[in-house]
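Tip: read the tokens left to right.
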């Protein structure tokens, strides 16, 4: 076994009396074992897992692909030969501890795994988890084998902290609380900051804070929760900028009966309008842009906590009461449908707020006697008591698919048992950011086992994501996972005792276990899911029987997290519960460079569907060229749905995502991190339907995102500048032709990757008289259209139509190509015409007319900033007011669809779709991120915008 690098901390003694070897009353018999036995599933006796693989040395050099600067470099790192370059890069840069270049720096995957697993084994021995030293050794080897072979992964804080000199924080998800006092509010800011500093996220419910419609004891009017959100948002933005591991992530929840609910719902939608205005004025309002910090509420996800009472009032069209926070009396009444429409309208405009279904959440609550569930973590998968935390781990489902296409039920069940054991052991030695969180977590021992690669598993087994068979398979796997987790939790309770809060909540906990088992009985099975469901049914019965005797060690066991960074660590094609993003993916190569490949699940699925080798090769070649399967040679149309993805030619319908969530929700202790993506043309009514169906189908939380609804990503619409008053037109217009010889200038430009040239001719005595636009190849339709357009504009100018009229009409038009430009004065354009007329305005219109249109040069914006803030213009940072991104020409039809400039699978997909995808640029390396649950993950460096 390789020697561990770094300082391993000896696990501290269990606090609050937990973790000691205790025995419940129901099993005080002398025959009861004093620890669990661990059987070998993956490993071979006498052979260490490290000796079964081939190791190789690699150089990790990570660059910002946009400018070539080196973000991270470590040479000679050691990894198994089957680990991808991407997984190697991310683990080396994110999880290896020690200063780069120092002897203490970890340089092998062996050292990383040993650093973590050795602490888990030692803590398990010290706290009485194992029946013998041999069981402890098998536990260590099995855990090592699964991590080495990417069968599962702990959440990121485990890799950051365990076995180092840092506090042993193992949880990625936190829920805080805030009361209606200034001391509590200020403490909220402090606690949230500490959690962000540690690289984790937090959520809380602000509904205890009095509304702006209520009075203070001093006689004044309360500020209301929305006002206090500003301070917390600014704090999160500051810590995000200085954080060493990841961006801050947070969730803010408000109950639907709070008197300030409308203000809360509209906060981010109104800020989005402000972003549009500032963007149109030339400020850098892209995500991570220099000027985005001037708007508020951008660092949190917002959710409305709705009740069954409210949803029934929406159905009936009745009134709904908004209640005072201290007395509970109704102080205002609103039309329920109007309020529901307001929520959907805001979500349509900017993606926020999401919905959390309060009564459903608390109906599945195992510990109601200890308090209600009022909030969630930032990604909405962890829901439990206030001031608590949850550590996560996720299984790679594709690792359990056997060569014959069946799911390895036995190995999956045993893997879950081992992982749950390890996760519970971690609470014995874990540190926490605040004492209230430490106390609650040690008393209730919340765990969050989950999985990734569901989308890949469904495709590989020939199931459409949006199909009854696919949902049955997902439901059966999820049911078995949670059943095996709670069964092992009950077994652990018989060895080291149930969680401290169990006795008070025993009746409720047992009721929820019965609800899970009853939901399992309602699953409609198919051929592929029947064996899994059968075993899940047996395990649930064992779980209920053992739990009735022993209680349970953990108040909750399972969630479905985004699995962002750890999904890349496990080389998963899909994250969490998500379907595949696209059929063609971006892959990095050993020694540098990259290439596009068809996802390996595609040929596996085709083989499963019965296609021959020659047919598979032809279909894969077609997919590589077109990015989809429509009209692929030899592929039956009835099989198209198997290859449907989140984006692309055959995108899964929004309700397909909701139905998948509903299929697995009854088998999760917590909830699901997932955003239901909707097309740009989706209506407010469509969003209302999604939110209503989520409630009826029994979801705990639901969030939507409408394509292109945010300015921080590519725009779907923008406010048009108000046209200036038109001059009086002569009754008989006279054309003023240009002389044979006239001054002109030519400007080369790129917009969203499309390259072109603008030539503008002027009258000798001043004034624009003609334009010529070169865009596209000579003889192409696009070139012909632009020639005709240039001619019509030129004739109009010569007949006296003012340039400012054209600018007001054509600026802000939106169509592809759109996006970043190479013009220092115009950083983002919503179309080629938007760019051309903004450029013409800057070159030919006086300042006064441009000011009316909101068009300024970078120099003018600098002077405005200097004047507004009383600064010297020379001191204003010009780089913060302009962008010099080098856009690249779009690929010609028939050319390679994946040029070397592509930096991620999302950017590759953008080339396929011919439109920009709604994903931010990574704050660390500049690569376009891709969705991971309700968060985003960077394929370049592993950074995430949320949990795991």
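Filled-in amino acids:
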């Amino acid at each position: 076994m390789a020697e561990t690098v770094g300082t391993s901390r000896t696990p501290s003694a269990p606090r609050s009396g937990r973790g000691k070897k205790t025995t419940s009353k129901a099993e005080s018999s002398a025959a009861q074992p004093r620890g669990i036995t661990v059987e070998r599933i993956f490993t071979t006796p006498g052979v260490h897992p490290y000796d079964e693989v081939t190791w190789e040395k690699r150089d990790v050099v990570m660059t910002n692909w946009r400018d070539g600067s080196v973000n991270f470099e470590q040479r000679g790192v050691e990894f198994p030969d089957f680990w991808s370059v991407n997984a190697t890069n991310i683990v080396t840069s994110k999880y290896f501890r020690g200063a780069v270049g120092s002897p203490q720096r970890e340089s092998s995957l062996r050292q990383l795994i040993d650093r973590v697993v050795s602490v888990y084994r030692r803590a398990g021995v010290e706290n009485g988890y194992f029946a013998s030293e041999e069981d402890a050794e098998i536990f260590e080897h099995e855990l090592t084998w699964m991590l080495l072979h990417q069968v599962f992964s702990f959440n990121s804080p485990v890799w950051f902290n365990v076995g180092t000199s840092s506090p042993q924080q193992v949880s990625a998800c936190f829920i805080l609380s805030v009361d209606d006092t200034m001391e509590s509010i200020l403490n909220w800011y402090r606690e949230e900051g500490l959690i962000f500093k540690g690289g984790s996220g937090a959520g809380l419910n602000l509904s205890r804070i009095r509304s702006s419609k209520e009075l203070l004891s001093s006689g004044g009017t309360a500020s209301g929760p929305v006002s206090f959100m500003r301070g917390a948002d600014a704090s999160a933005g500051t810590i995000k900028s200085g954080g060493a591991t990841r961006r801050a992530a947070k969730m803010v929840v408000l109950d639907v009966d709070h008197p300030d609910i409308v203000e809360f719902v509209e906060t981010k939608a109104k800020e989005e309008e402000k972003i549009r205005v500032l963007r149109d004025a030339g400020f850098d309002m892209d995500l991570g842009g220099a000027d985005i910090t001037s708007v508020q509420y951008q660092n949190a996800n917002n959710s409305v906590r709705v009740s069954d009472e409210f949803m029934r009032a929406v159905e009936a069209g009745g009134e709904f009461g908004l209640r005072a926070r201290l007395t509970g009396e109704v102080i205002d009444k609103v039309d329920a449908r109007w309020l529901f429409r307001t929520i959907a309208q805001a979500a349509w405009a900017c993606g926020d707020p999401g919905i959390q279904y309060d009564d459903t959440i608390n109906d599945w609550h195992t510990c109601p006697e200890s308090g209600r569930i009022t909030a969630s973590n930032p990604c909405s998968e962890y829901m439990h008591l206030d001031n608590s935390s949850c550590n996560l781990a996720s299984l790679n489902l594709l690792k359990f698919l056997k060569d014959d296409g069946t799911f390895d039920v036995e190995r999956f069940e045993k893997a879950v048992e081992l992982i749950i054991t390890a996760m519970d052991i971690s609470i014995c030695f874990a540190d926490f950011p605040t004492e209230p969180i430490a106390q609650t977590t040690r008393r209730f021992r919340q765990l969050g086992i989950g999985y990734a690669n569901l989308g890949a598993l469904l495709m590989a087994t020939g199931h459409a994501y949006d199909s009854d068979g696919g949902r049955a398979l997902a439901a059966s796997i999820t049911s078995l996972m949670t059943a095996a987790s709670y069964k092992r939790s009950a077994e652990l309770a018989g060895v080291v005792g149930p969680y401290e809060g169990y006795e008070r909540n025993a009746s409720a906990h047992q009721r929820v276990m019965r609800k899970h088992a009853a939901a399992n009985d309602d699953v409609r099975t198919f051929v592929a899911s029947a064996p899994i469901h059968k075993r899940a049914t047996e395990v649930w019965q064992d779980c209920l029987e053992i739990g009735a005797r022993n209680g349970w060690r953990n108040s909750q066991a399972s969630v479905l997290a985004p699995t962002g960074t750890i999904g890349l660590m496990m080389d998963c094609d899909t994250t969490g519960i998500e379907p595949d993003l696209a059929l063609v993916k971006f892959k990095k190569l050993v020694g540098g460079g990259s290439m596009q490949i068809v996802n390996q699940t595609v040929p596996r699925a085709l083989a499963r569907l019965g296609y021959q080798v020659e047919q598979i090769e032809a279909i894969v070649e077609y997919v590589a060229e077109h990015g989809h399967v429509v009209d692929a040679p030899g592929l039956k149309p009835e099989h198209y749905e198997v290859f449907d993805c989140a984006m692309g030619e055959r995108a899964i319908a929004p309700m397909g995502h909701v139905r998948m969530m509903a299929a697995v929700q009854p088998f999760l202790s917590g909830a699901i991190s997932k955003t239901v993506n909707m097309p740009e043309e989706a209506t407010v009514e469509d969003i209302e339907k999604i939110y209503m169906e989520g409630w009826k189908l029994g979801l705990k939380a639901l969030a939507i995102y409408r394509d292109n609804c945010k300015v921080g990503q590519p725009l779907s619409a923008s406010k048009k500048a108000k046209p200036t008053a038109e001059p009086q037109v002569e009754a008989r217009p006279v054309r003023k032709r240009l002389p044979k010889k006239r001054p002109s200038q030519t400007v080369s430009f790129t917009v969203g990757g499309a390259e072109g040239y603008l030539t503008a001719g002027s009258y000798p005595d001043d004034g624009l008289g003609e334009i010529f636009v070169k865009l596209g190849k000579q003889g192409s339709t696009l070139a012909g259209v632009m020639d005709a357009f240039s001619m019509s504009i030129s004739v109009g100018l010569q007949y006296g139509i003012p340039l400012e009229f054209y600018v007001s009409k054509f600026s802000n038009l939106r169509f592809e190509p759109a996006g970043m430009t190479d013009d220092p004065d115009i950083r983002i354009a919503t179309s080629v015409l938007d760019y051309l007329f903004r450029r013409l305005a800057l070159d030919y219109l006086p300042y006064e007319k441009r000011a009316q249109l909101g068009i300024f040069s970078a120099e003018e914006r600098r002077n405005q900033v200097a004047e507004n803030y009383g600064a010297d213009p020379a001191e204003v940072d010009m780089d913060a007011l302009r962008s010099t991104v080098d856009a690249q020409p779009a690929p010609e039809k028939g050319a390679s669809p994946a040029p070397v400039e592509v930096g991620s699978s999302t950017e590759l997909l953008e080339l396929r779709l011919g439109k920009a995808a709604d994903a931010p640029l990574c704050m660390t390396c500049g690569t376009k991120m891709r969705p991971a649950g309700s968060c985003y993950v960077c394929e370049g460096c592993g950074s995430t915008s949320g949990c795991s």
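Confidence is low (pLDDT under 50) at residues 1-31, 241-246, 713-730, 878-900. The radius of gyration is 30 Å.
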